[in-house]
């Protein structure tokens, strides 16, 4: 097949008095015929599916070649039979994803572990960038945090709670600080692999989430650096991220990990509804490139069955209709995050309005499930933004009016903390929030709640929810669903 394609290209090149073509990987799951004019370095041909290259398995996951000036490429594109890839978990099946995020561990967040940041004694430390920048013993502090915040016992408890997935965030700086970033580049990746081992032991599937990208994809502290979004300002940012995805894809495609790591998520919460003008186009192209990286770079001469995870970029699910369509692309999953606490209108709304807002997602999720597998990969039972530092270290809450420009709605002291002062009626409301959301989100592939545990935000804490009774161990047929 390759010979026929090259013969046709060579014939066409000869007709133009040009040297024979060469082939290079385009980075998006396709190969490009290039360099037919060494003097002008132009490309005159189109994209060629990996199915036409030696050693590659033909599969319907391989994007078809683009229309080009070379008829021979299109003439042979349908000649090879397809192979359907099978993931280690059927995200389109009847068994639903039920999981928790391992938040605040390998990507530290001030609101999940306030003491880690407060104990620095430096108010300038608001994220991992400033942690590395201003804390002289940052590496040893973070090492202790990695050692103690999450252990195998957590995975044992997660499994005992009837959960089958975890989503584990990790930042790009765990792999690469080559641009001179002050982050601590330590042993985060080793801890991630250790956690995957614990997950395997307890029969839990893992979604590995590249939570922070070079340049920050959203300007949030959970991207590693709070402030400006410069992710799409430099093509090297995408190249660095793809290199990290290649590293993980190769490692997690091996027999040791492949049955446990079922999803690699290319990016968390890229802020596509704002930021630089090229944010949408840059990130969508990165997603295409990430697909090629995860699918084709992981296994020599074959294709990886790891699911490629995307994020909706806050655009909403319908925005992605027709993106990465089957059968050209296989095993693509869309992650959406649903919160009802990050605006004055949301924290002040009535219970019935809040449930109406949550229930309105049911049809969107159901419809998108037919387009891309859909998981609600972050959500909470919390109805307020009262948790300490939730809006950033040193920043107040909208609910009690301490957030800049907000107005008082109520007292935060009974809405967050360790949960010991929660009233029975508030716990009953949290139980309704849990039951209603899992019912709605299982319209798609399922859900992964944010987060497993916190130091002092019980309203966001799955572990404390179990102990406090507003999260049940029995997850089938939830009661108290409000829609």
UniProtKB/TrEMBL annotation:
GO molecular function: glucan exo-1,3-beta-glucosidase activity
Signal peptide: 1-17
UniProt-listed SUPFAM superfamilies: (Trans)glycosidases
Name the record gives this protein: glucan 1,3-beta-glucosidase
One GO term (biological process): glucan catabolic process
Entry-linked InterPro entries: GH (IPR017853), Glyco_hydro_5 (IPR001547), Glycosyl_hydrolase_5 (IPR050386)
Catalytic activity: Successive hydrolysis of beta-D-glucose units from the non-reducing ends of (1->3)-beta-D-glucans, releasing alpha-glucose
Species the sequence originates in: Tilletiaria anomala (strain ATCC 24038 / CBS 436.72 / UBC 951)
Cellular component aspect of the GO annotation: cell surface; extracellular region
């Amino acid at each position: 097949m390759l010979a026929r394609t090259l013969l046709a290209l060579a014939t066409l090149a000869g007709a133009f008095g040009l040297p024979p073509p060469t082939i290079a990987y385009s980075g998006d799951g396709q190969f490009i015929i290039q360099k037919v004019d060494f003097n002008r370095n132009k490309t005159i041909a189109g994209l060629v599916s990996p199915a036409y290259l030696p050693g590659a398995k033909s599969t319907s996951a391989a994007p078809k070649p683009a229309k080009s000036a070379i008829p021979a490429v299109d003439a042979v594109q349908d000649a090879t039979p397809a192979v359907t890839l099978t993931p280690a978990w059927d995200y389109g099946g009847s068994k639903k994803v039920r999981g928790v995020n391992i938040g605040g561990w390998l990507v530290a967040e001030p609101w999940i572990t306030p003491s880690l940041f407060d104990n620095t004694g430096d108010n300038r430390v608001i994220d991992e960038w400033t942690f590395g920048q201003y804390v002289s013993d940052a590496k040893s502090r973070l090492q202790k945090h990695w050692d103690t915040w999450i252990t195998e016992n957590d995975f044992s408890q997660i499994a005992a709670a009837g959960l089958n997935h975890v989503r584990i965030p990790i930042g790009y700086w765990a792999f690469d600080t080559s641009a001179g970033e002050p982050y601590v580049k330590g042993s985060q990746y080793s801890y991630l692999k250790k956690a995957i081992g614990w997950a395997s032991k307890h029969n839990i599937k893992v979604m590995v989430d590249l939570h922070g990208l070079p340049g920050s994809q959203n300007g949030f502290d959970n991207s590693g650096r709070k402030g400006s979004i410069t992710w799409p300002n430099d093509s090297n940012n995408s190249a660095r991220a793809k290199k990290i995805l290649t590293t993980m894809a190769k490692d997690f495609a091996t027999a040791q990990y492949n049955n446990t790591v079922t999803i690699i998520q290319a990016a968390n919460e890229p802020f596509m509804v704002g930021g630089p003008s090229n944010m949408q186009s840059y990130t969508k192209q990165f997603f295409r490139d990430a697909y090629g990286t995860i699918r084709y770079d992981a296994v020599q001469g074959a294709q990886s069955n790891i699911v490629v995870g995307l994020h909706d970029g806050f655009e909403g699910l319908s925005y992605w209709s027709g993106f990465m369509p089957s059968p050209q692309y296989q095993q693509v999953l869309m992650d959406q995050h649903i919160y009802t606490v990050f605006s004055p209108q949301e924290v002040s709304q009535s219970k019935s309005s809040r449930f109406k807002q949550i229930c309105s997602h049911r049809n969107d999720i159901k419809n998108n499930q037919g387009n891309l597998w859909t998981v609600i990969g972050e959500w909470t039972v919390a109805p307020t933004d009262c948790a300490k530092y939730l809006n950033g270290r040193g920043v107040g809450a909208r609910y009690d009016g301490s957030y800049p420009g907000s107005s008082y709605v109520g007292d935060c002291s009974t809405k967050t903390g360790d949960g010991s002062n929660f009233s029975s009626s508030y716990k009953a409301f949290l139980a309704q929030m849990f039951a209603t959301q899992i019912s709605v989100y299982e319209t798609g592939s399922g859900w992964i709640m944010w987060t497993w545990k916190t130091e002092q935000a019980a309203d966001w804490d799955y572990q404390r929810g179990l102990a406090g009774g507003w999260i049940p161990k029995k997850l089938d047929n939830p009661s108290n669903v409000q829609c």
